[in-house]
Design a protein that fits this description.
alpha+beta, about 25% strand, single chain, four-stranded antiparallel β-sheet, globular, five-stranded antiparallel β-sheet, 7 helices
Amino acid sequence: TLAVTRELTIEEGADPWYRATEPSQGALTDFDAVLMRKDPPFDMEYVYSTYLLERAVAAGARVFNDPRAIRDHNEKMAICEFPQYTAPTLVTRSAAALRRFVDEHGDAVFKLLDGMGGTSIFRATRGDPNLSVIIETMNLFGARSVMAQKFLPEIKDGDKRVLLIGGKVVPYCLARVPLAGESRGNLAAGGRGVARPLDERDRQIAEGLAPIVWSRGLLLVGLDVIGPSMTELNVTSPTCFQEIRQQTGCNVAGLFIDAVEGAIRGGASTRA
């Protein structure tokens, strides 16, 4: 598999801080590692890129995260494999089922399976006069699947991003604390990032998942945890490296590069 590439040289203290060569074409197998770190949306163009990268893996390229593992782990749906760590969750196209879920739990969050950055997230409560409109907007009158999750009031203390790198747990998380009157903590939605050490439940979830996801070729994973519950398992382009380092001194980017280099030296497959 060929790709258009540019060589970067870092120049510390310079402006700009890097120099780039002219584009050239080369084989992905010529590189020690290929990092699949394209931002969502997870649309069909993204899927096509994973097909191409899978051909590169078959030819001997080392790709992180593994392209097939990315496809296999939808960032919303993947949590359904681990109910011991999640709040009550439903995925359906049925308006009646979504309404029953809200009636049962009293307060719920609706999200699209391909959403990112807190976009298209609705909070729905029992007796809300707009509930039918919310459901119709989300499920397109039964044409689109929607994830419903029980609302977690602990969101007021932050939606925590817990990072797993190379099967190990980063000891700090970034709690994305919502703005006043807002129920979304995403930084893209105006949330304030506060770095914290992992608490006991954070670590229980992270240590339970870390070896599993790494065995599947997912070197970098970002778990979203609200209170005691995991709400998403992010595998495409997990962020919060910089904020954690700035506030704690923990060099998350360095841990990531060390893990990539370790996987290469150890001969780790991108699909164990």
